[in-house]
Q: What sequence folds into this?
């Protein structure tokens, strides 16, 4: 069994930055392609970014491209999401997830964290 735990969420003003972390336990994080998703109240869960097992091939949703950066440190079993130039529309509960294949659909991911709240004020 794999456990994922997000941290680093909080409240930030528009234009500010925040870095989220996802700790992986139970199995080596290097086994998985890792993704970040977010869900705002009343909306569907949406894809944010993914990163390959070795830290290459980052891929981003158009809504965050150029502002967010996904990275990982397999030695620490941790995945990160650096968020810059935050906008009020980025406000959501952010989840990390693990999969064996590249995918943007939430249903393709096998393991999920509990989520961490990000609130961007205007």
A:
């Amino acid at each position: 069994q794999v456990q994922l735990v997000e941290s680093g969420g909080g409240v930030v003003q528009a234009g500010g930055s925040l870095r989220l972390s996802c700790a992986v336990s139970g199995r080596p994080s290097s086994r998985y392609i890792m993704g970040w998703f977010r869900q705002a109240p009343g909306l569907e869960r949406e894809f944010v970014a993914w990163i390959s097992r070795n830290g290459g091939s980052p891929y981003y949703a158009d809504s965050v491209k150029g502002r967010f950066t996904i990275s990982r440190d397999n030695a620490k079993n941790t995945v990160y999401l650096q968020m810059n130039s935050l906008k009020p529309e980025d406000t959501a509960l952010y989840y990390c997830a693990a999969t064996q294949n590249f995918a943007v659909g939430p249903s393709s991911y096998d393991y999920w964290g509990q989520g961490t709240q990000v609130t961007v004020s205007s």
